[in-house]
Each structure stands twice: as structure tokens, then as C-alpha cells.
Amino acid sequence: MLDVIPAILRGLTIRPQYACRSCTDGVVQAKVLLRLVEGGMVSTALVAQIVVSKFAWYLPLYRQVQILAGQGIHLDRATLAGWVKRAAWWLKSLYELQLRTIQAAPRLFCDETPMPVLDPGRHRTCICQFWAHAMDDRP
Fold it and tell me: What global pTM score does this model have?
């Protein structure tokens, strides 16, 4: 039998505060940890979910906004786009390493495939390019 546990969106307390009545230090709070989106309200796990849904499962951001709204979280599509942009900034060094590894191969195969992409503001699709790279020497 298969079962499902739906996603749970919750608020997390990242920096708890502690006080001691007998101490003279007053209230003590943990230091701020480095976050994916500085000053943002989003966790790394939610950004990863948004990015994977967009690029691995081809779920556009406007549809993800609708899904989140159905769960009581009302966000703008531009907010999600900013999160995706920030995740791309953090992954840039990994991308550059992957690109150097591919370019160092003795043989490189590329495929450029045109594909329609939905443009929600214009209510139609535009043609974009999907690039695939391979560096395998097997026949």
C-alpha cells in the first residue's frame, strides 16, 4: 500500500533567546547564521523545492504560486523568481567547475533543441533553446 504525507509549510524560530535570572548578562541570543536569501523569510529547503519543481519537473513559477496560495501562503511570482536567481548565484561556482570539466574533454557533443516556453504575461509561448552537452567517448 502506498501512502502520502503532504508538504507542510511552517514557520521556524532560527534564533532563540535565553535569559537567566541570576546572571547579569541579561538576554542572550544566538548569532545569525548565513542564509541563502539574506533578510528573507525563506529557508534553503523551500528554495530547493522551488528550483527542483521549476527545472526538474517543469512547473512554472506562476503555477507554484497558485499551489502555495492553496496552502495559505500568498507570494508574488517575482518573489519566487528572486529566490531562484539567488540560488543560481550560489550555484555559479559549481556550474563553472562543471563547464571546465566538460570543456577539458577530448570530444564534446552538443545538441540545441528549440522548445516552446510559456510566457504568462503575454498569454502565449515563445521559442527558447534547450542545450544538452555530452562528453562520453562510447559509440
Answer: 0.70
